[in-house]
Each structure stands twice: as structure tokens, then as C-alpha cells.
């Protein structure tokens, strides 16, 4: 199995594991088992980030970071009619989850399925369905249970504060497209697993010490704010490349971010990523993302003295039903293999 195939396999596996921000235990367990198989040492931080030591040099370490947490929701209240009002986890417009199947995860470990609907969903009953504002008041979860009251729902063990995950609807087409929710950032996580395997096999031999961190709170802005080893001088986020009008990025290439909402990325790191892309002869773009923030920026805001960069496969329809192509996965992996071998 090639490293690209391995990465894709892991991406598909990870997309099937619910992991809204703060509810990442199952996904982290999966990663731990994978790194055990690869033979690398790791620690789980108090904040539920997974920090993996891939060895090699002693100083001037590089850390590659991806986030395992995804968008999701939480039960806000149980309505008198047995429906659930929700509170968003992460940033997305409500229309992007309308009519989505979901799972409610109780504190006792029970799971119940449901569907996210408008409170007035039927065009045969409500003439203004298309004009109804998509907001917290007009969206609700209808459970796949015979419930008719708040008490009926409480009897199931569902309570405010329970997590809600969205059906990822993951598909790998015969033409190489990966379509799924949560490619942000399970694509990045899978790519780092592929890189770790290449390093384990000595196919890729870094010139410096390498760490990988997988965070649980990126979608709410403070994923990589803590637990950075002292010897780390550079951090590169491996996250999705934003695709859309006004950008060069596409779903077949690796995107190198020069600037996003948090400002410019480190000039030397961006230049080095571009050099790595050219050396590895992959399809790449350099982009400025208008509405974006990354794990590595939370490291800077927390006061860490590091240089920072951001790279990832182009992903279309971000924070919705996303799509990319195996060409973008391969391009990102090859760029990173070259990047870690550079001085």
C-alpha cells in the first residue's frame, strides 16, 4: 500500500468517527492505536491534544499540527413537544446543516439518531418555507423515537449539554473524489499519518526533530495554544486549503497559505513551503484566505515564539458537505515529505 493510499484509508476511517470540538475521545483513541502500530512514542496532554515524538534531531524542532475536532452542535433545550433546540459548535451558517441526519450522544454513552429540520419544513403546509430565516430559533432536531413531550425525551437520558454529531456521508468515487463532512481537518490528520508512516519506513528522513500534534479545540480557536515542546521553533498547520472565487486553490492541488484573517504567515516558512512544492514537482497554489484561522495562530496568540506556516489540500464547500480529490492529498503529502527533509 502506498503512503497516499494509506492516508486516504485513514481519512475515510476518521470521517466515520464522530468528534465535535471537545468530544474527540474516540478519534484520539483511533490515532493512538495507529501510532502504537507505527512504533512512535506519544503523550496525551491535559487538554486532550495528542503529541507524538517522531525522533531525529535534538534541537530546532519542527511541529506539524492538525486538528481532529470538527463542527457539531449541542443540545440547548428540550422542547415541550419532544424536539431539541441546538447550539452550534464551531462556525457555520444553519442552512449548511438543514435536513442533515445526526446522532445525539448522551453523557451515559447512549446514542440516538435524528434529523435536523426547520421548525416549519413542509412546503405543503407553510408557504414561506424558502423565506424562513435559518437561525437557532428556526432549526430543531427531530428524534427517531416516539416522543411527544419533554419528559419523554428526558426518559431516554437526553439532557441539555449532550453532543450532536452530523452524518458525514463519506464517499470515495471511482474518479478519485472524496466527498464528506469534516474533511476539515480529517484530511490533514490522514496526511500526517501517511507522513509518519513514511518516516517510520525511512522513505522520508527528516533533517531535524519532528513532532506532530493533533488538537481537540481548533474549531473554537484555541487548539494549539498550549503544550508545545520547548525545542520547537517552527510550527506548520496541515489543514484544508480554502477553495472559492478569487482564490487560486483547487481540489487537485496543495494550497500554501500566505495570509489569512490572522495576518501574514512567516515569510521564510511560506518561501520554504513553496520551494518544497517546486522540488517535489507537485501541483500547488499560493493563496490568501479571506475568512480563516488556524491552529498555529492560536500558538502565536498564546505567546509562543515560533515561526508559522499553513498548508493543505484544496477543499471545496468548506464547513458544509466538503469535497477534495486524491490528487490534492498526494500533492500535500509529497510536499511535506520534501519539506521535512530540508535543512
Automatic annotation (TrEMBL):
Cofactor info, note text: Binds 2 divalent metal cations per subunit.
Residues that coordinate or bind Zn(2+) 1: 67, 184, 239
Active site: 218 (proton acceptor)
Any coiled-coil regions, as ranges: none
Record keywords: Aminopeptidase, Hydrolase, Metal-binding, Protease
UniProt-annotated binding residues for Zn(2+) 2: 184, 219, 319
MF (Gene Ontology): aminopeptidase activity; metal ion binding
Family: Belongs to the peptidase M42 family.
Name the record gives this protein: Putative aminopeptidase FrvX
Biological classification of the source: Bacteria, Thermotogati, Thermotogota, Thermotogae, Thermotogales
